[in-house]
Specification:
The complex is a heterodimer of chains A (422) and B (958). Chain A has 422 residues and is of the alpha+beta class. Chain A is 53% helix and 9% strand. Chain A has a domain of 226 residues: Serine Threonine Protein Phosphatase 5, Tetratricopeptide repeat (Alpha Horseshoe), CATH 1.25.40. The longest helix of chain A is centred in the N-terminal third of the chain and has 29 residues. The termini of chain A are far apart. Chain B is globular and about 105 Å long. Chain B has 958 residues and is mainly β. In chain B, helix 9 runs antiparallel to helix 10. In chain B, strand 21 and strand 22 form a beta hairpin. Classes of the chains: A alpha+beta (422), B mainly beta (958). The interface between A and B is large, with 85 and 82 residues.
């Protein structure tokens, strides 16, 4: 009899336990994957993609700046302590401080780009399969798909432009696949842009074309570049910017800015300002003394620090009409038409109230080399936007020994170890 | 409630009425120590009738004598007990009016064999019949010899198979338990802690200050603790379910039961100081003098008052302790106030009610240290000139304060009905409510790298509620006269709920205005709720054959809120047995020869959302609030399973010498490893819980004890603990190694948290003989492990001239490595003396010469390019505690010419007296990322070392 009571008690306990543990308050800060159902959810996903784009882009531009001859690193600056940044700046394969795949900053940047890329995929997938768009919500759907494909193109562009397996094998991986070369990734970028085009508004289409043109120029496909540029962004078009706020802030503020300084700008930028103080509109800088002092206590060195991204919320331009103009200038100068090239260059300069330049200016400052002038204009225009690295490669201006230096960031160790195809 | 009191009085007066009808009988005698003849003042003598009912009792007086007058007749059982002595039982037959004499000689219970210990959930036995390895510490005795800042210090070096390590020298800093080989791979490897039946939140929390957190263990007042018991692995702790896979720590606080009087008042005052144990040497650190100058002597002051006692059915303990402790960095202090009220009521032989309540308020100030550019340590050790990162005044102006208010309370009712005396049941409920606040302020008067120019404030709050309820019911029965059985079923439920929020604001106009509204710019904020529930039911069957063979079979089924089809319940079995050889053989002077063996299973459940593939949360960014993946789970996740077998024996000889030995093996399978996806998948928001791990560990733990001298004036007690453990990660399921700090990680076929990497063999030279870099091994090689293979302690307690007691404790760790990351950065930043000197020498020497090559080889082995260069052999021997106590009770009362005090003890003690270690850093036991990281262990990166502590205490009993 006593045993029966025990068994009953046990049985009751078993069933009660199951109910008991299931009755708990669910977390308030996350939702399940199956809860994206409406057009509003699509907009929620779009903002996520745009936010992740911004999180990847500031890291890419910062590290690209350090890898190139745009930014330098020295421990003479108070607060400059990141060994990882020192390694990126040296960009060398040789000791004492070689750039290695175990660089954490690069690992974080690669991870950010890949997460960004994955979210574009998921956005497209959910818009096409899970989300129900009601009548009148086609515009939301188109906008969601445009953002999905456009930013997917951007992510692949980042992978192709900024990473590589070895010093002579640029490219990256997707979904633990084999190494995709830069060329393959740029092809995939163009394919995504073609998809984005189907859902683009007129202004968005112009952005797509300027972006296309950039890729074509990097591929030395001047014919296709010219076609794209003719339908690209024009003055008055809003930039495609990466946006930041107090919670997801612009990394430049703490990489090289008012928050903390790891990078300082190459001396030539200060030289640009010495030549023409009005260039501060494109190259805002502030001075920061080094910690080493002479016998009088005066700093031995004073460094120039970027002030273009001056606050935690400063946006970073990804595409703008000025690029369209400068690409048109490049095509013209490359084709021997310096005059047309100067028109486009001066269109850009005029937007900053800079004086127009002419053949004499090129002769006086660039020994008559118009392309050198253009390269310098790009150097100033795209200061701290991650473009200098690409320009150095494109125009064959690498500042280090290419046989013993990285012209892209090495794929991180975590990827090499986890990817059986590498 | 009122009816209950009425019943109580009726019962009481009924007994008294029937009692008065009989004639008086008298029992008188004395209670003394069998070896020394010393009177055992306060020994308890209780008289019971044939049915075991309590009739009367007394306590031995100052000369050990007692006298009990009763109204009863027949066969009576006399039970005598005294703390630290084996119980004594005798029977006497009384007729009306008899007077009998009984002189009792008690034998010291040197290791507490007869003390009741917890041997599993709802299972208590005396240690001499326990089937599992369990160690009990008499905390009350320890606090008489030493003053402890927190509970972990009390346990250090005293429990076989358990090591405690402080992650840093911060007052209020984190503490890590290392139990045996460390259990499975999942979780943080920490045992579950119960305080008076309340499941206690043992966590490290707070705003980042570089690595260390605030440890909630700091809320336990060591002076309140009566005993600590530890069940070390699944064999002992299987019935605690998943909670017990890393062991169970059971803390019991004082409740007045030990007292012999209706009341005793104790007042304790402690004064002392913390000081830097080991100064930085100018042979190693460029700015050693500046580094040493930042340390201060931190004052310690503790005042406690307690009242405890017992009277008949009621015993109680009320106490207050206030402690103020300053650390050795001026930013570090801890203030704790603890108010406790415990009482037990035994209104009848059927019921017992235990209530425990404790309110603790702990405030602390934490120093910026470890990986923190505003901390003093980094600024003086890494930079020349010092404070290049952060100005010293700016560093001093950062404040981090924690404020923790906590209530821990429990109530337990035990019921053993008279109408079914073999039935016993217990219901207990406990709650641990905590309200934690952490505020960090950067002054607007200074500039800080990484912080906005005009000051910043972060506020972090967490409110936690733990509730647990345990119920069990058991029945004792016999198959026949030789075989006794006990069947117990029970259940446990546990709920956890926390509500966390934080906010960060920057740009303050003034250092004097620090409220949130004064900050101009909101920077970030969030809040989140977490709740989960666990439940378990268990069945236990105990066997006892003639007090010779004991065996237990038990099983528990656990349930949990964890999502996932396969993950929400699991069964944990246990089998154990013990054999008392001394009860079957003529073992002469061997008063205990016991062998035991056991098998048990436990494991860790996955995390709350581990079974859900993807979860999305908000990304509040420039474009607005968007969706991003915030956690990645695994729908196929299963719980981890840890199997353990243990074999052991215990031998005690002549009540003075003994050994306790246990060998164990643990096998963990389906260990849940948070395996990061390859970055190119884009699914890297979190690592993915995956059942891919397997780890095995084995070892032994042993304790040798001896009391070779036991006289009235002298007693010598010696304890030697030796532990050995080895562990190996058998499999990571093909996943990549989990690495942190460049070389510390989980690697297959290596011990957990092994240090592995390319090892520098020497220097490389170019064709001109010039130093050109490091010659390294082609592959990663195993360097060492942060988990020592051998650990142990030796403690000596010597009572001399009757009233003086000298106590010392040495502990050691052997075959252990620490990563001296501080030194790596010193080399990088040019503040390592040896590296600088070698560089200078090299520059002055001729390439290709023998001395150049020798210097280059040394320099290569200090190259910061290879972190393996800084994984150092860090075996250590520490003189951990030394104390001298004088029992001044007799002297004082003699001076006063009457009994004024019942107890007067003066104690002088030192903790962290000395350390011997080849480690180049200051303290090989620290860990820069606190005490909860499971992969990265023994990493010393600008971590504050433990201080040397001096205390002087006066303990007065009235």
């Amino acid at each position: 009899m006593k045993n029966i009571y025990l068994i009953l008690l046990l049985t009751f306990a078993i069933f009660s336990c199951d109910d008991f543990v299931s009755d708990y308050e669910k977390p308030n800060d996350s939702i399940g994957n199956d809860q994206f159902k409406t057009a509003k959810d699509a907009q929620f996903l779009v903002k996520g993609v745009q936010g992740l784009f911004a999180e990847a882009y500031d890291q890419m531009t910062s590290m690209a700046g350090g890898l190139s001859d745009e930014m330098n690193f020295t421990r003479d600056i108070q607060g400059a302590s990141f060994v990882q940044f020192d390694e990126i700046n040296r960009a060398t394969t040789l000791p004492p401080l070689p750039l290695n795949p175990n660089n954490n900053s690069i690992a974080n940047g690669f991870k950010a780009v890949q997460e960004f890329r994955k979210h574009t995929e998921l956005l497209i997938e959910k818009c096409e399969n899970d989300i129900v768009f009601n009548e009148g919500e086609e515009g939301i759907k188109n906008d969601a798909l445009y953002n999905g494909y456009f930013y997917s193109a951007v992510a692949k562009y980042f992978l192709g432009s900024y990473f590589g397996l070895e010093i002579n094998s640029p490219g990256a991986t997707i979904d633990v696949g084999p190494l995709l070369s830069r060329s393959e990734l740029y092809t995939m970028t163009l394919a995504d842009l073609a998809e984005a085009e189907k859902y683009a508004s007129e202004a968005q289409l112009r952005s797509i074309n300027t972006f296309r043109a950039r890729i074509y120029i990097l591929q030395n496909n001047t014919t296709m570049a010219a076609t794209a540029l003719s339908a690209g962004m024009v003055q008055g078009d809003a930039n495609v910017n990466a946006l930041y706020n107090a919670l997801a802030l612009n990394d430049w503020f703490y990489d090289s800015g008012n928050g903390r300084i790891q990078w300082y700008a190459a001396p030539r930028y200060a030289a640009y300002l010495d030549l023409d103080p009005k260039e501060s509109a494109r190259i805002p800088l502030f001075s920061f003394p080094g910690t080493a002092t002479d016998s009088t206590g005066a700093p031995l060195n004073v460094y120039s620090i970027q002030n273009k991204h001056s606050t935690t919320e400063s946006p970073i331009r990804f595409l703008g009409w000025q690029e369209n103009e400068l690409l048109l200038a490049e095509l013209a100068i490359d084709g021997g038409d310096v005059g047309t090239g100067l028109i486009h260059v001066n269109n850009v300069r005029a937007s900053y109230n800079l004086d127009a330049i002419d053949d004499q200016y090129i002769t006086d400052n660039y020994a008559g080399d118009a392309m050198a002038m253009l390269i310098a204009e790009r150097d100033k225009e795209f200061f701290c936007e991650g473009m200098r690295l690409l320009d150095q490669r494109h125009f064959d201006l690498w500042h280090l020994d290419p046989a013993t230096s990285w012209m892209h960031l090495p794929l991180p160790l975590a990827e090499r170890q986890a990817n059986p195809n590498l | 409630m009122k009816n209950y009191k009425l019943i109580l009085f009726i019962v009481f007066f009924s007994v008294m009425y029937s009692y008065n009808a009989l004639a008086n009988v008298t029992l008188e005698g004395s209670v003394k120590d069998k070896k020394t003849g010393m009177a055992l003042i306060g020994a308890s003598i209780s008289v019971h009738d044939q049915a075991g009912n309590f009739l009367s009792g007394a306590y031995a007086s100052n000369d050990g004598s007692f006298k009990i007058v009763m109204k009863t007749t027949g066969n009576l059982t006399i039970r005598t007990s005294y703390l630290g002595y084996k119980k004594y039982t005798s029977t006497m037959n009384y007729s009306d009016g008899d007077t009998k004499t009984l002189n009792i000689e008690l034998i010291q219970d040197v290791v507490g064999l007869e003390e009741i210990v917890v041997t599993g959930l709802a299972s208590k036995n005396s240690k001499d019949v326990s089937e599992v390895a369990v160690t009990k510490i008499d905390a009350a005795e320890l606090t008489e010899k030493q003053n402890y800042s927190d509970f972990s210090q009390m346990v250090t070096g005293k429990i076989p198979g358990v090591q405690m390590s402080n992650a840093s020298g911060n007052a209020g800093g984190g503490v890590r338990f290392q139990v045996r080989g460390g259990g499975g791979l999942n979780g943080d490897g920490q045992p579950v802690i119960y305080v008076d039946g309340v499941r206690f939140t043992n966590n490290e929390m707070g705003i980042d200050i570089g690595g260390q957190g605030y440890s909630t263990l700091a809320d336990i007042n060591p002076n309140d603790i009566e005993s600590v018991e530890i069940l070390k692995g699944p064999v002992g702790a299987a019935l605690y379910g998943t909670q017990g896979s890393n062991g169970v720590v059971l803390i019991t606080t004082k409740n007045g039961r030990r007292q012999n009087d209706f009341y005793q008042v104790n007042v304790k005052y402690t004064g002392g100081w913390n000081e830097q144990q080991t100064p930085y040497s100018s042979d190693q650190f460029v700015n050693a003098d500046v580094a040493n100058s930042i340390f201060v002597d931190g004052a310690i002051q503790e005042t406690g008052i307690g009242v405890q006692g017992q009277s008949g059915i009621f015993n109680y303990y009320f106490g207050y302790t206030g402690r103020q402790e300053d650390g050795i960095l001026f930013q570090n202090n801890l203030d704790r106030e603890s108010l406790r009220g415990n009482f037990s009521v035994t209104p009848s032989s059927e019921f017992k009610l235990d209530i425990s309540t404790n309110f603790v308020g702990t405030e602390s100030s934490r120093p910026m240290s470890d990986n923190n550019i505003t901390g003093f340590m980094g600024n003086v050790l890494l930079f020349d000139p010092p404070f290049a990162f952060t100005d010293s005044a700016a560093a001093a102006a950062v404040s981090d304060r924690t404020d923790n208010s906590r209530f821990i309370g429990s109530a337990a009712v035990t019921y053993q009905p008279n109408w079914m005396p073999n039935l016993h049941s217990r219901l207990s409920m406990g709650m641990d409510y905590m309200d934690f606040n952490n505020t960090q302020i950067y002054s607007p008067d200074y500039v800080y790298s990484g912080v906005a120019a005009s000051g910043a404030k972060q506020v972090y709050n967490q409110n936690r509620k733990n509730f647990n309820m345990d119920f069990n019911i058991g029945y004792d029965w016999k198959i026949n006269d030789d075989i006794g059985m006990e069947t117990v079923i029970g259940s446990q439920v546990f709920t956890y709920k926390s509500n966390t929020n934080f906010i960060s604001v920057i740009d303050y106009p003034s250092a004097d205005l620090t409220n949130l509204l004064s900050g101009l710019t909101y920077q970030s904020a969030d809040d989140y709720i977490r709740e989960y529930r666990e439940a378990g039911i268990f069945l236990r069957q105990d066997f006892n054959y003639k007090d010779i063979v004991y065996a237990t079979a038990a099983i528990r089924q656990d349930y949990s809120s964890v999502l996932g089809a396969d993950a929400n319940k699991i069964i944990y079995p246990r089998l154990s047995t013990a054999f008392r050889l001394d009860n079957v053989m003529d073992t002469k002077d061997f008063n205990l020869v016991k062998i035991r063996a056991g098998w048990g299973q436990s494991g860790q459940l996955p995390g709350l959302l581990a079974g859900q593939s993807l979860r999305w949360g908000p990304l509040n960014a420039g474009p607005g609030v968007g969706a991003q993946i915030t956690s990645i789970g695994n729908a196929d996740i299963k719980p981890e399973s840890i199997n353990e077998i243990e074999f052991g024996f215990e031998v005690e000889y002549n009540n003075a010498y003994g050994v306790d030995f246990t060998y164990y093996q643990q096998f963990a399978t389906n260990s849940i490893i948070n395996r990061p996806n390859a970055p190119s998948t884009g699914l890297t928001a979190t690592s993915i819980p995956t059942n891919i791990g397997e780890i095995e560990s084995s070892g032994f733990e042993s304790m040798f004890y001896a009391s070779p001298i036991m006289t009235e004036d002298y007693q010598l007690d010696l304890r030697l603990i030796l532990n050995y453990q080895t562990n190996k990660i058998v499999s990571l399921g093909g996943s990549q190694d989990l690495i942190t700090w460049d070389i510390v990680g989980w690697y297959e076929n290596q011990p957990r948290s092994a240090f592995m990497g390319q090892k520098v063999l020497g220097a490389l030279f170019d064709e001109n003989g010039v130093y050109a870099g490091e010659d390294v091994t082609a592959d990663n090689v195993y360097i060492g492990s942060p988990l020592p293979k051998m650990t142990g302690s030796f403690n000596l307690s010597f009572r001399f001239l009757k009233d003086f007691t000298f106590y010392s404790l040495f502990d050691f760790a052997q075959d252990v490595y620490t990563l001296n990351y501080t030194r790596r950065y010193q080399v990088l930043f040019g503040t390592d003396v040896e590296s600088n000197e070698l560089s200078e020498q090299l520059a002055a020497q001729t390439p290709g010469s023998a001395e150049y090559i020798a210097t280059a080889n040394k320099l290569a082995k200090l190259s910061a390019n290879y972190v393996t260069n800084f994984a150092e052999e860090a075996s250590w021997l520490k003189l951990r505690e030394v104390s001298l106590r004088y029992n001044a009770t007799k002297m004082f009362n003699k001076l006063m010419d009457r009994k004024v005090v019942s107890d007067l003890n003066l104690v002088f003690s030192v903790r962290n007296v000395a350390i011997w270690s080849p480690y180049n850093g200051i303290d090989p036991e620290v860990n820069t990322t606190g005490s909860r990281t499971n992969v990265g262990r023994n990493v010393d990166f600008l971590t504050l070392a433990a201080p040397r502590t001096f205390n002087f205490s006066i303990n007065l009993g009235l």
